[in-house]
Amino acid sequence: MALTDVKTAANRLTELLAGLDEATARGDSVLPGWSRGHVITHIANFSRAMTRQVEYALRGELVEVYDGGRPARDADIEAGAHRPAAELIADLNDAITALLAAWDRVGADDWSLPILHRNSTLAHGIDATWRELTVHTSDLSLAVTPADWPAPFCAHLLDFLRPRTPDGVHLVLHPTDGPTWENGTGEDHVLTGTLNALTAWYAGRTPDSPVDGRRPELLPWP
């Protein structure tokens, strides 16, 4: 994963939301119970949280991802989701600008520095940034869908989500436009479709084209 991929995802998101009006901001996202305002607020809050992870890591320090943990994270999303559209976008743009600037300060020898986000490293943190920006852009239910996810991103997301395959299941994905992907052991579940459709299904999103085969019940996101 390269920083250029994160910047491309960030640009796609900000361009998609340029000129957001009130009705669109209040409209439903694809995430149950969340408006687009909720998704935008979450991305902005995540961006600030990850910026802090980067800044502290570069100083040789660790800091919690969200002060107050998951309850405070969820409360902040709900509190910010209903702001005027212009305020939502200004906040998002400021947060993403700061995050990209933070990633620009990471040197070649810094990627192994630890962070508390998933108890991982800066290298994993930039992957998480790529996932958050890319997946949630399609969650806005605007012009971008999982069918627009780049093939390298689909490959990355499938591998990240391997823990979703339940015990006793040998999951085989046969993309019509890519190599076969397998995970787990046990009863065979063979699915076919485009790479993007299969990845969308595995990510818990609605595929834009058919996925054929017997689908197992997946575990939550890791």
UniProtKB/TrEMBL annotation:
One of its GO terms (molecular function) is maleylpyruvate isomerase activity. Residues 8-140 form the Mycothiol-dependent maleylpyruvate isomerase metal-binding domain. Keywords: Isomerase, Pyruvate. InterPro entries: DinB/YfiT-like, Maleyloyr_isom, MDMPI_C-term_domain, MDMPI_metal-binding, SCP2_sterol-bd_dom_sf. It is an enzyme of class 5 (isomerase). It holds the Pfam family MDMPI_C. Its EC number is 5.2.1.4. Residues 148-218 form the MDMPI C-terminal domain. It comes from the Bacteria. This is Maleylpyruvate isomerase.
